[in-house]
Specification:
The structure is a single chain. By secondary structure, this protein is an alpha+beta fold. It is 22% helix and 25% strand. It has one domain (5-194): Alpha-Beta Complex (Peptide Deformylase), CATH 3.90.45. The strands form 3 sheets. A 5-stranded antiparallel β-sheet has the order 2-3-4-7-8, sandwiched between helices. A two-stranded parallel ribbon has the order 1-9. The protein has a two-stranded antiparallel sheet with strand order 5-6.
Length: 199
């Protein structure tokens, strides 16, 4: 099942998501639906709030970043990844970023919930994260480079934070009308979306 992507302006995107209690939802099924939805939108990460669910879960798949011949992409972050960053595909349930370190570096990020808008965001180059996978197996892993950036971006979603929250007040002011238009459904996104202000 492919879900519509929740557009900017929906209150669910600004809420701190709730932890998932084991055996209360079918996380395997939901994870597959999230991967299908993300891939349909040509993204590299998707958090549960982006499909209207205020729960602490997100998925990531960096393989689309390897395709540098793709002309028209809506990847959350980039079309091409650093050659040193291994491809990874992972489900993150009830994650906690335990530590971030390394030099902060800037990159123009985008978001499937905010199509057509990009902005420069500084993030740490390395992190360690504790989480459960779709089989409720517990993990603590370290990531760096674009993998870390994807995780940080999606983790922000379950904390009610959007990449535009990192932009300067001036930049936010300049984007105000575009953001209002997105919330009303005035966007040319190539995937199905749910708009909070569409009548």
């Amino acid at each position: 099942m492919i879900h519509p992507i929740t557009a900017y302006g929906d209150p669910v995107l600004k809420k701190i998501a709730q932890e998932i209690i084991p055996n209360t939802i079918d996380v395997k099924k939901l994870a597959q639906e999230m991967f299908d939805t993300m891939q349909n939108a040509k993204g590299v990460g998707l958090a549960a709030p982006q499909i209207g669910l205020s729960i602490r879960m997100f998925v990531a798949d960096s393989s689309p970043l390897e395709d540098d011949e793709e002309e028209d992409t809506n990847n959350d972050l980039a079309k091409k990844t650093d050659e040193t960053t291994p491809v990874f595909k992972q489900v993150f349930i009830n994650p906690t970023i335990e530590e971030e370190w390394g030099k902060e570096w800037a990159y123009e990020e985008g978001c499937l919930s905010i199509p057509g808008i990009r902005g420069e965001v500084y993030r740490h180059s390395n992190l360690r994260i504790h989480f459960f996978d779709e089989n409720w197996v517990e993990h603590t892993k370290e990531y760096d480079g674009f993998a870390a950036r994807i995780i940080q971006h999606e983790y922000d979603h379950i904390e009610g934070v959007l990449f535009i929250d990192y932009l300067s007040n001036l930049k936010k002011q300049l984007l105000k009308n575009k953001l209002i238009n997105i919330s009303k459904g005035n966007t040319d996104a190539s995937y199905r979306m749910k708009f909070p202000l569409r009548k």
